[in-house]
Each structure stands twice: as structure tokens, then as C-alpha cells.
Amino acid sequence: MFHINLEFDDIKISSIEKEDLIGVYGWLQYEDNFIKYEEFYERFLEYYFNECEFFLKVYKNKKLIGIIKGNVEFKNPNEVWLVYFIIGSKERSKGLGSRILNYIINYFSKDCGIVRFYARIQETNFETLGFWMENQFNPIKLLQGAGDKSVILVNCSHKI
Prior knowledge:
One of its GO terms (molecular function) is acyltransferase activity, transferring groups other than amino-acyl groups. Pfam families: Acetyltransf_4. It comes from Clostridium colicanis DSM 13634. This is N-acetyltransferase domain-containing protein. The protein has about 160 residues and is α+β, with helices and mostly antiparallel strands. The chain has one domain: Gcn5-related N-acetyltransferase (GNAT) (Aminopeptidase), CATH 3.40.630.30. Helices cover about 30% and strands about 35% of the residues. It is built from four helices and eight strands; from the N terminus they run ββααβββαβαββ. Strand 7 and strand 8 form a beta hairpin.
């Protein structure tokens, strides 16, 4: 578990703890019903028992508005992989997701020496692809995943 606790303006970003699971899962089901609780719990355990994984809850004015999950790879160069970056539907298209993403990127760049950032998204999710491209992430590879799901890897080189 890579523990993170950040605050800026009216936003608080912190690590998901076991006592948060039911509330975070309920919010996730309301926002994007794509994962069963068992799978969600497995993702939590992956994060909990891996020192390089992070799983974050995002609050605005004490209200849950998002989750972020990823992992840090300390190699040459150091990398962050973002697996989930979900902002609540009521908060989208206001620039808030970009502000949160930029804050996370700056945190990892300055505090952890990360120079490369990657995100994985569904190939057919054009709205999400647009968000990442607006934030200087560019498609670099198309992968065939399990079943018929394809995933695009997008990359952003960030200078400290």
C-alpha cells in the first residue's frame, strides 16, 4: 500500500481504508456499475498488500466525488500507471478532473521523482480518451485484453 494524503482548495485525496469499502463501492455502483463487489474487494486487497499500489478516494467539501487506483514502478525512469480515474458524473466537464489529475501528477513528480505517467482506458470510451488527450496524454499502444475488450495505453512525459 502506497499511502497518500493530499489536500488542495476544497479537495481531499486520501488512501482508501477497509472501513471505506462499502461506501466507496456504493458510490461506484451509482456512478458506473461495471464491477462486482468481489472483484472490487480483490482490487482493494491487491492495493492493500502491495507497497507500490495506491487506491484513493477523492472528496470535495466532504462529499465523495471520485476514486483513483494505480501503481508506482520505481525503475529507470520511474513510472505511475493509472488504472482507474473516475470522477462523479455531476462533477465532470467542469475542469475538476483535470485539476485533480494535475495535482496527482505534480505530487508524484516532486515527491517521488516520477517522470512517466500512463493510463489504461477502454478503446471505445471516446469521452475518456478526449479527457486524457486534453491533459497531454497520447495514445501509444493498443492491446487486446480478456475477451473482446481492447485497451489503449496513453502516456504523458512530465518534467520535474
